[in-house]
Amino acid sequence: MGNNLIPLRIAGVGYSVPDAVITNDDLTKLYDTSDEWIYSRTGIKERRVVSGEENAIDLGFAAAKNALEKAKMAPEDIDLIIAASSAPPDLYPAIACHIQARLGISTQVPAFDITAACTGLIYALSIAKAYIASGMYKNILLVATDNNSRLVNWEDRGTSILFGDGAGAMVVTASDDGVDDVIAIDIKSDGSIGDLIELSFDGKNCPLVEQYEPKPQGIRMNGRGVYTFVAKVLPHYVENLIANAGMKAEDIDYLIPHQANIRIIQAVQERLGYSDDKVVTNIKYYGNTSAASIPLALAESVEKGKVKLGTTAVLCGFGAGMTWGGAIVRLREGIC
Ligand code: COA
């Protein structure tokens, strides 16, 4: 290789979802829709939602504990925490700071959040890879968690059918056997089409100056526009990611995509020529859990035995920004 970059090992993955289930039939109590309409267009049958005081920090904390156990690491071993969320319950303190406190880490390790919407885990992994490669940090906890159910407009049947709540976490560490579990990683954005999915957090001007027209509350999305953009870009992007790594689609065992729409997943699957047993989908039960979607799909599919270890997987995601990204990873024995 001829460089001094330190390779990364994925040491553990974990997940957590809230208990409350909302089915498509339940949504007919809110607006004019049907299970048939939702399922045929999205692949979603039900989603989990937080209730009462529960929020994305609780889900993220549970997923983090789960990933640490799998990694056989103590909270005190962690030297950096990065949380990815589309809309944290608090803008500050960061989710990562809350999780540091809840894990009882007393060593004042840095903790911060990033916002790359549903691509958050890929962005966080890319940041972690650079930190580990440089030797700056050794054991990094990544937490991807979202409570979209608090942020959708429950009167908008075009968006509120899609989203659910959940969390996924990953512990990554400096690899001591020279093998890098991130075979390839790439992240992208195009801010010029940022208006396809928006969630405003705009406050109010100083009362002594002119006020402005506040934007509508809740997630606003041009569903058709998102679908058209992603269906055009993502299959080709994933194909290129694999080719640029000097690999062929058949060299990779699994596709673990962001769970936003079953038809988008199928478009990527078709481009790669994968059979159903190589593609992880849990959108039917969770809907789109934003940043949590990829690590939740990864950890759950390994736990349930759908994904075998000692294998490789291509992860890919897209979301508000617009952002998108992909990674080819090794899934070693013992991560879950
Ligand atoms: N139930 C019944 N009818 C609904 C409905 C619902 N839940 N939501 C919308 N409709 C209606 C619309 O009002 C519209 O009716 P009209 O033709 O009388 O005006 C019709 O269905 C078609 O609406 P449209 O928004 O064009 O539907 P669509 O076929 O594009 O499907 C999505 C909507 C949201 C399922 C689809 O666009 C999608 O999945 N996009 C991708 C979104 C995504 O992945 N976002 C997350 C990115 S991270």
Mean pLDDT: 96
Hetero groups in this structure are: coenzyme A
Strand order of the largest sheet: 1-7-6-4-5
Number of domain modules: 2
Please identify, by name, the CATH architecture of the largest domain.
3-Layer(aba) Sandwich
Straight-line N-to-C gap:
30 Å
Rounded Rg: 19 Å
Shape: globular
| Count of helix runs | 9
The amount of helix comes to 25-40%
The CATH topology of the largest domain is Peroxisomal Thiolase, Chain A, domain 1
CATH class division of the largest domain: Alpha Beta
Question: Secondary structure elements and their pairing?
Answer:
Elements: E1 8-16, E2 20-23, H1 24-27, H2 35-42, E3 46-49, H3 56-71, E4 80-84, H4 95-102, E5 111-114, H5 120-134, E6 139-147, E7 165-174, E8 182-189, E9 197-198, E10 220-221, H6 223-244, E11 254-257, H7 262-272, H8 283-286, H9 293-303, E12 311-319, E13 323-331
Parallel strand pairs: 4-5, 4-6, 11-12
Antiparallel strand pairs: 1-7, 2-3, 6-7, 8-13, 9-10, 12-13
Bound molecules: coenzyme A.
The site of coenzyme A has 21 residues, from helix 2, helix 6 and strand 12.
Quick recap:
With 336 residues, this protein is of the alpha/beta class.
Task: Describe the overall structure.
The protein has 2 domains: about 10-175, Thiolase/Chalcone synthase (Peroxisomal Thiolase, Chain A, domain 1, 3-Layer(aba) Sandwich), CATH 3.40.47.10; about 180-330, Thiolase/Chalcone synthase (Peroxisomal Thiolase, Chain A, domain 1, 3-Layer(aba) Sandwich). It has helices at about 25, 35-40, 55-70, 95-100, 120-135, 225-245, 260-270, 285, 295-305, and strands spanning about 10-15, 20-25, 45-50, 80-85, 110-115, 140-145, 165-175, 180-190, 195-200, 220, 255, 310-320, 325-330. Helix 3 crosses helix 4 (about 95-100) and helix 6 runs parallel beside helix 7 (about 260-270). The chain starts with 7 loop residues before the first strand and ends in a 5-residue tail after the last strand. The model has no long low-confidence stretch (mean pLDDT about 95). It is globular and about 55 Å long. By secondary structure, the chain is an alpha/beta fold. It has 9 helices and 13 strands. The strands form 4 sheets. It has a 5-stranded mixed sheet with strand order 1-7-6-4-5, sandwiched between helices. Bound molecules: coenzyme A (COA). Coenzyme A binds next to helix 2, helix 6 and strand 12.
